[in-house]
Amino acid sequence: xxxxxxxxxxxxxxxxxxxxxxxxxxxxxxxxxxxxxxxxxxxxxxxxxxxxxxxxxxxxxxxxxxxxxxxxxxxxxxxxxxxxxxxxxxxxxxxxxxxxxxxxxxxxxxxxxxxxxxxxxxxxxxxxxxxxxxxxxxxxxxxxxxxxxxxxxxxxxxxxxxxxxxxxxxxxxxxxxxxxxxxxxxxxxxxxxxxxxxxxxxxxxxxxxxxxxxxxxxxxxxxxxxxxxxxxxxxxxxxxxxxxxxxxxxxxxxxxxxxxxxxxxxxxxxxxxxxxxxxxxxxxxxxxxxxxxxxxxxxxxxxxxxxxxxxxxxxxxxxxxxxxxxxxxxxxxxxxxxxxxxxxxxxxxxxxxxxxxxxxxxxxxxxxxxxxxxxxxxxxxxxxxxxxxxxxxxxxxxxxxxxxxxxxxxxxxxxxxxxxxxxxxxxxxxxxxxxxxxxxxxxxxxxxxxxxxxxxxxxxxxxxxxxxxxxxxxxxxxxxxxxxxxxxxxxxxxxxxxxxxxxxxxxxxxxxxxxxxxxxxxxxxxxxxxxxxxxxxxxxxxxxxxxxxxxxxxxxxxxxxxxxxxxxxxxxxxxxxxxxxxxxxxxxxxxxxxxxxxxxxxxxxxxxxxxxxxxxxxxxxxxxxxxxxxxxxxxxxxxxxxxxxxxxxx
Length: 650
Known about the structure:
Blueprint: H1 10-23, E1 32-36, E2 50-51, E3 61-62, E4 66-69, E5 83-86, E6 91-94, E7 106-109, E8 114-121, E9 126-134, E10 144-145, E11 156-158, H2 166-174, E12 179-183, E13 187-192, E14 197-198, E15 209-210, H3 213-223, E16 227-230, H4 238-249, E17 254-258, H5 269-276, E18 277-282, E19 286-287, E20 293-297, E21 304-309, H6 313-332, E22 341-346, E23 350-351, E24 357-367, E25 370-375, H7 383-388, E26 391-395, E27 401-402, E28 407-412, H8 416-420, E29 422-427, H9 431-441, E30 446-451, H10 454-462, E31 469-471, H11 483-489, E32 495-509, E33 530-533, H12 538-550, E34 563-564, H13 567-575, E35 581-585, H14 586-591, E36 595-609, H15 610-613, H16 619-624, H17 628-635, E37 640-641
Parallel strand pairs: 13-16, 13-17, 14-15, 17-21, 19-24, 22-25, 29-30, 33-34, 33-35
Antiparallel strand pairs: 1-12, 2-11, 3-10, 4-6, 4-7, 5-9, 8-9, 18-20, 20-21, 22-28, 23-27, 24-25, 24-26, 26-28, 31-36, 32-35, 32-36, 32-37
Helix pairs in contact: 3-6, 4-5
């Protein structure tokens, strides 16, 4: 049955795929091979159990340097009643690991004996009889590693399906094996397709897409224990794609055909599968990644599974996690990976498509006694959302969203200890926050920042959702920054206001300033398109204040309602000609090769609750504010000054 872009529930898609795999005889371990027992066996999966060939140790071994004795000869020894044993007949010196003489059943550590000697005369020479003196009785088999203490011959050492760790290799060697049988690594072919693709490192033009999905997919496959073959990029040539898929099927166990699989004119993936075999599924009710293709190619007796992987990078990554990893695990004879989970509280409301399982990326941190989860970008093309993600939560079909404060279960990508060393910063965007994050990474701290604007940061503080907020909110009446807003929004929260930087705000314009935009009055011109910051951002507050002073209505500004959340996003909008100008910082203009029209000096502060200011978690961050190297780095950025960095304003 052909299903074309008809999303079906994930369990149903898996069931249909597994039935086809079972019919083709590709549901269990694909095969095994014998390999030498050495460091290259690390990570391989045992295809047969390891039974001990010999015991370990395979003899009674001394566990200490000392004297081997027969324990019953020491029964009368005591602190006030020492006894002496004759070396050679009643005691024998042994080093650690030496076999015990057959007449011995214990070892006395060398530090627990006294050496004595006695001179005796024979008819032809004078001899010395060497003895040891002891002052405590010894129990049988003390300080002895008895035969089989670690491993007894014939016992099970490791079961089939076990992924080998360094310690396992030692245990196998100790049990008498020099080689092992392991599951054959599945071979996975990865075929990137699309005429718009260009190789990594090549110059790009509008419409070009750097092909890196195959790198990510191959890395996933290798990490899961399989072998990956990356094929050359294939353009939108249906016959050539068919030929390469057919060639790959002859030498591999699974094909990952990476391309767009929507109903567009250049979509060849489903047609390729239909020509070469059977299309089982085209569309699964998951987001991101719903246009997944599942199929089988080849003849009935030798059918090879193929997965059409969506082109968007996040969709491709999640397709690997959802479909490829479980399949590789089955072929290796081990259980699929089970993530570490953690309960966390959502920091904001989220919506979800009612008919899909929604895989939502999250940044996770512990703030006070709460573990908080901040939703990241939902775009299927935003690979940095996966880079920043500490984990994902799955909103099941039928759930159309969750309110802020809801508890979710997070499948972690990081160890929980990383979460406990995470500093949550919410508020205004500034480039120096990224520099702090890099330097803190060297001090066993992670700095996670969410750019929601200065006002949003203060509101997050009021809800106990972050450790600090970055803010540059101007009070038009006093010309002071942040104080008024802190007193209004978090009046009952003891905080420190610490200056991070002084910086210059101005208009970001195209290189050469072709429209000669030199003041805010120019924003009201009909030929000027503006890109704004979001409501609540300090830059937006500054703009609105200055517009009121000039008597300019926001209705007069074309693009006033078009918003971005960071200075760099504003710069990108101007650089891409989506807008002619936007208010932002000079460093953002320089980063994207724009010109800058300087206008206002402002102060950017960190608002830190007193309880966190004094915490071990934030100590490295506060130390950096006094570090001359950090100050030198920031002062080298255009439009920044560090004269007040680290000063406590309140």
